[in-house]
């Protein structure tokens, strides 16, 4: 049940973020649909691969495709000034997708009794897949490698699930909200992690 | 039988398109072979993943590797003026690969009794995989996201198969030819789909 | 046994090469870990996909994650002048990963009695996966498509294994050392393969 809801939330969020990136890049009508669907189901594909769900199961989720279609259509026909107003739109929806799929990855790792470090990495990689696919296809450097702390929030989700702090739908929902909040705050306040100091091109 | 022929056609076409892109990018001898093989079998890998065929089965298709090798060798030794004459070569072979794998994706979706929208998306994503891998590895923006209508033809293949209009090898062959024709015409006449109007970088 | 050792060697080598590329690109602390882990386990994921090992098995290799973590941490805290001194560091560790995974791919292909050409291609593609993922995510053109002979060494590993010249851990280790040596020499002396002569952008 929780799995199913996270799946729907993550898929919708990645679909919206893909469609918004496509509009930013001036793709045409079909390009918006293709990048939206690729991001949503590409993210799910990476998650399925990493946690051993047969990839072709994706085609049995009819309702998810229908929802993604409707959502992308809404993004496409929304007046520009609405989208312009939510300057952080892509970041926001990407954060939701990241959080939803990261929690699924961590839950899977816990279910096979993986040690803590594996739970953390599973959360990070499962969550980051959709955004990576979107950014690579749009010819951008994946968000995860740009500054403003991205993977850390997924890793913290993995940590809290791995330590057994999260159980049941309610605390899962609180965790999801917290990850999205911290990610958006990190972008808003331009939080950054330490870098290894070196002059570029020195190596 | 039809599956096998489409597989051979799609693999050869993607091998040629990969080799041509590698020559365009001034890759060396091995680069041409590697991008040709990566495009051909990467496209098949994406298709296998999406429709649940074990990926490692690819290694059992000895004859396909042999054919791909011969085809890439021919592309490499062909005189430049021949290649120069067929300016649309990459587009043409890419279109054949797109059509062949799109039909396989749609047929699979129909075989599991997926609803129409799923058949259409399966056709598009299965068909687009090879070209996406080629373009990402060559550092280009994937064709599917550039203008001149790309995914639409794969989607229409999915629609016609999903509606049951296509049955038997003959109508499949007609459909394949029609997709390639429309795709080439779209590039030739620079057909475009509507874009969401907005000034770039406004978001 | 040999499999396990090659797995450890390849994973460590790709982890180091990913971390070094991330430092070169001025990624932050987490970026270095994410690109290191993505390269190491992405390479293993491609290998597992291609030779039919369930991808989710990756999460059962606890010790590998621990080793990769330690190794990336060491790379991060090493003084810059050390890294600067080994100018070919990325090339060197990438070559080790390439060689280790190429040998695994070739051994698998031999084990299913694939013909020689398939063994050669399996070696090349299995070996090249990690580096391709690293370079695509770092926004670089994959090493395999730049000059100075890359895929050839993996292909030769495939050839020697396919011909049955390599048996037992000792000769495998000699082969691995030879591939790394030739790759590094190729970069050092700027060996190149023939290119198809044509003026760029002519096509």
TrEMBL record, chains A, B, C:
Compartments (UniProt record): Cell membrane
TM annotation in the entry: 6-23, 30-51, 63-79, 91-110, 116-137, 149-167, 173-191
Coiled-coil intervals, chain numbering: none
Name assigned to this protein: Trimeric intracellular cation channel family protein
Glycine transporter domain segment(s): 5-78, 92-160
Predominant localisation class: membrane
Organism from which the protein derives: Siminovitchia acidinfaciens
Transmembrane helix is among the record's keywords: yes
Key word Protein transport present: no
Family: Belongs to the UPF0126 family.
Keyword field: Cell membrane, Membrane, Transmembrane, Transmembrane helix
InterPro entries: Gly_transporter (IPR005115)
Superkingdom of origin organism: Bacteria
GO cellular component: plasma membrane
Membrane topology, record value: Multi-pass membrane protein
């Amino acid at each position: 049940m929780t799995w199913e809801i996270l799946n729907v939330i993550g898929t919708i969020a990645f679909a919206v973020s893909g469609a918004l990136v496509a509009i930013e890049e001036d793709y045409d009508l079909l390009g918006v649909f293709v990048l939206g669907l690729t991001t949503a189901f590409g993210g799910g594909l990476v998650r399925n691969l990493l946690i051993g769900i047969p990839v072709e199961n994706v085609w049995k989720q009819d309702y998810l495709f229908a929802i993604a279609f409707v959502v992308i259509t809404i993004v496409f026909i929304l007046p520009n000034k609405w989208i312009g107003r939510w300057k952080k739109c892509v970041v926001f929806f990407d954060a939701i997708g990241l959080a939803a799929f990261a929690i699924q990855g961590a839950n899977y790792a816990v279910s096979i009794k993986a040690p803590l470090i594996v739970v953390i990495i599973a959360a990070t990689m499962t969550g980051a897949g959709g955004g990576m696919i979107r950014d690579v296809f749009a010819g951008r450097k994946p968000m995860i490698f740009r500054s403003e702390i991205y993977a850390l929030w997924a890793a913290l989700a993995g940590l809290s699930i791995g330590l057994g702090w999260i159980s049941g739908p309610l605390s899962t929902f609180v965790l999801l909200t917290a990850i999205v909040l911290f990610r958006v705050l990190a972008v808003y306040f331009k939080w950054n992690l330490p870098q290894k100091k070196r002059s570029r091109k020195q190596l």
